[in-house]
UniProtKB/TrEMBL annotation:
<protein>
    <recommendedName>
        <fullName>General transcription factor II-I repeat domain-containing protein 2</fullName>
    </recommendedName>
</protein>
Length: 174
């Protein structure tokens, strides 16, 4: 029961991070991928009986040490492997979004000439117009000053010139 309590706590934390308004899809995707990596970390730690990510299970282990019994975590590792597999299957389509996550994080790192438009055609119907706008955006020295804070980039940009990018960003907000 203590293992389940700890895992449900981690799942609830993920759930809360996925909720709310005005979040870009790249942040949500990042939360999912981050949680998948946490599951791998948890498995590694449980294999060595390192329980710092499982406070309730650690209490059980501390009790068992007092009565000279060792906690066997192999069953818990298998349960986490199963959960990890379910996450991989459920969110495998999100890997398709990775190429344009960089665009949302920092549009100035996109090489449109060599790599084309990073946005999936299913999201933006007019990728040709989007490529032109991206090239214009990449040459805007005023916006490059704010490249560490992407939201400022979108707020200070000339949205009349970047209408397709603005529509795309609006569509990607939750």
């Amino acid at each position: 029961m203590s293992f389940c309590t700890d895992v449900v706590h981690h799942l609830a934390t993920l759930n809360m991070s996925l909720q709310g308004k005005n979040k870009f899809i790249n942040n949500l995707v990042q939360d999912i991928f981050s949680f998948q990596n946490k599951l791998k970390l948890f498995q590694r730690d449980l294999r060595t009986n390192y329980l710092n990510h499982f406070p309730y299970l650690k209490k059980v282990e501390d009790y068992l040490v007092g009565i000279e019994t060792k906690l066997n975590c192999e069953d818990y590792v298998q349960k986490l492997e199963c959960l990890s597999t379910h996450f991989e299957d459920r969110f495998k389509d999100l890997k398709l979004l990775k190429p344009w996550n960089a665009f949302l994080e920092n549009p100035f790192v996109i090489n449109v000439i060599e790599n084309g438009c990073p946005i999936l055609k299913s999201i933006s119907m007019d990728t040709a117009a989007l490529e032109i706008e991206l090239l214009e955006l990449l040459e805007d020295e005023g916006l490059k000053q704010f490249n560490t804070v992407v939201i400022l980039c979108w707020n200070f940009g000339n949205m009349c010139l970047l209408l397709n990018i603005h529509k795309l960003l609006f569509a990607l907000k939750s």
